[in-house]
């Protein structure tokens, strides 16, 4: 299973989606014409490292904020300790993140997903990130803080791509995120659409909203509003008492089959599924195989759903993290999953093994 081939195909699909979306938009055409060659140059850098025996993932996840203005049910960031009011004074500053982004660019990393907490609370970091024109920064946001200033930034710097969180219809979104949140998201989508700004939607898929979010009607409605990228993230029960929301094996199969149909029917959209897509890539992508996670304090973690760390990016390079014994052992756990063809989240299933590696057990 050649992970690099699959990842490059996925990147190509996203770029094709952006190119089609911006075909009739002057600012968009100008952006994509310059951006595609930078993606090709980054891929070459990664390939050069690969030839030298060093695997560089094309993606990073950077949780730049430890604070959030919402309290969503089953939030992995709060459950995993990423989102904590006591952490604000310990967050990495703009200079720290700038150094990390510089290093990532030099390594050929193409996408850095900005998360949190609520990343738009760190406006100075989002603005700084926009200067890295050879990296795409999907910003996973609840959407409630998007104002005219942010809209202008998204318009002028198209490498900053807003990814709006939704749970399906308005009832399901408000139930998990708070009354009136769905209306605010709808308004933001309308404003982005009026400016021809590509945006995505991230959906946490549960037993409760599965039927809604995989329906052609729902996805087509998002597309009509200007959504070009759809992330399906299977719910991981990081919060006790929410196990009833987890997809069954049959549910996961239904999700996978419907995403395949949507990919065939809606060529102008990109669909990304976690962890569903991993079975086509030989297993878990965490710990640097496809990405790794940096928390607001700089701790290097295999994945947001596996918040364990031995190294910190304040004092350690990305290369050192990728080649660390801890990450190498985590990748072996992912390989074990691929060989045994298990479903679901690998690191959750093998949580005790991960904790044993760092001495928690």
Question: How would you explain this protein's 3D organization?
Answer:
By secondary structure, the chain is an alpha/beta fold. The protein has one domain (3-357): TIM Barrel (Alpha-Beta Barrel), CATH 3.20.20.70. Helices cover 45% and strands 14% of the residues. The protein is built from 15 helices and 10 strands. Strand 6 (227-234), helix 11 (249-265) and strand 7 form a beta-alpha-beta unit.
- Count of DSSP strands: 10
Number of helices: 15
Shape: globular
**What's the CATH architecture?**
Alpha-Beta Barrel
Briefly note the CATH topology name: TIM Barrel
Radius of gyration: 19 Å
Report the CATH C-level class.
Answer: Alpha Beta
- Uncertain runs are none
Largest sheet: 5 strands, mixed
CATH superfamily: Aldolase class I
Order of helices and strands: HHEHHEHEHEHHEHHEHEEEEHHHH
Taking strands numbered 1, 2, ... along the chain, how are they ordered across the largest sheet? 2-1-8-9-10
- Average residue-wise pLDDT: 91
Q: How much helix is in the residues?
A: 40-55%
Query: Quaternary state, please?
Result: single chain
Helix-strand makeup class: alpha/beta
Percent strand equals: 5-15%
Q: Quickly count the domains.
A: 1
Please outline the helices and strands.
Elements: H1 3-21, H2 26-51, E1 59-63, H3 76-79, H4 94-107, E2 111-115, H5 123-129, E3 137-141, H6 148-156, E4 160-166, H7 170-177, H8 181-194, E5 199-205, H9 210-213, H10 216-224, E6 227-234, H11 249-265, E7 270-274, E8 293-294, E9 299-301, E10 311-312, H12 318-322, H13 325-340, H14 346-349, H15 351-357
Parallel strand pairs: 1-2, 1-8, 3-4, 4-5, 5-6, 6-7
Antiparallel strand pairs: 8-9, 9-10
